[in-house]
Amino acid sequence: MKLFFSILIFSIANLKAQSDCKDLIITTDNRTGEIKFECPLAFDMQFYKILTKDGDSSFHLFLQTMVSYTNTNEKGCTLYLSDSSKIEFPEQVITVTNKSSLLYKYSTTITLSNNDIERLLKHSIVDFKMHIHSSTEKPLLLKKKNATQLMNYLRCVVKGVIPKKK
């Protein structure tokens, strides 16, 4: 009976991961021939992969957060993972834009290494920090369901299969 429930839970999780892949947005740059696989922006994070016409690929993570004050020339980003470890990018440049008289948008795009991807496929992101700013000025601490959805999006981007033309 226990095996049945384990298989059932695995099957349901697998179906959810497949349905998340339907949200993948695939675009082609007609000028360069690059193909971009990107998941929707979720919880102020977005994974995407760029595949060149030569077959090389690069993986990226876009992060953003809104804060009520600004500092210039800030650097550094940290991803906090579900196993209590972290991935640090101390030299990551952060862009600051004024969204309104009360809010500033901090954003950055991180190029992920193969090692980063392997870790993120095993341990989900539960929070992130850009320079001194945690996500939305308060710890994000993603619920397990949301962290799993982000991990499923990453799996879709890594898989990045080009749909067959009908």
Describe this structure in words.
- There is one protein chain.
- This protein is α+β, with helices and mostly antiparallel strands and 166 residues long.
- It has a single domain, classed as Immunoglobulin-like (Sandwich).
- Helix content is 27%, strand content 37%.
- It contains 3 helices and 10 strands.
- The strands form 2 sheets. The chain has a 6-stranded antiparallel sheet. Strands 6-5-9-10 form a 4-stranded antiparallel sheet.
- A hairpin with a 2-residue loop joins β9 and β10 (133-134).
- The longest helix has 20 residues, at 2-21.
- It is globular.
- The termini are far apart.
- Residues 2-17 have low confidence and may be disordered.
Order of strands in the sheet with most strands:
1-2-3-4-8-7
Largest beta-sheet characterization: 6 strands, antiparallel
Kindly state the number of beta strands.
10
Low-confidence stretches: 2-17
**Percentage of residues in strands:** 35-45%
Q: How confident overall, as mean pLDDT? A: 79
Order of helical and strand elements: HEEEEEEEEHEEH
Name the shape in a single word. globular
CATH architecture: Sandwich
What's the CATH C level? Mainly Beta
Can you count the helices?
3
Based on CA atoms alone, the radius of gyration comes out at 17 Å
* Helical fraction: 25-40%
Number of domains: 1
CATH topology (fold) name: Immunoglobulin-like
Main structural class: alpha+beta
State the separation between the terminal residues, measured CA to CA: 43 Å
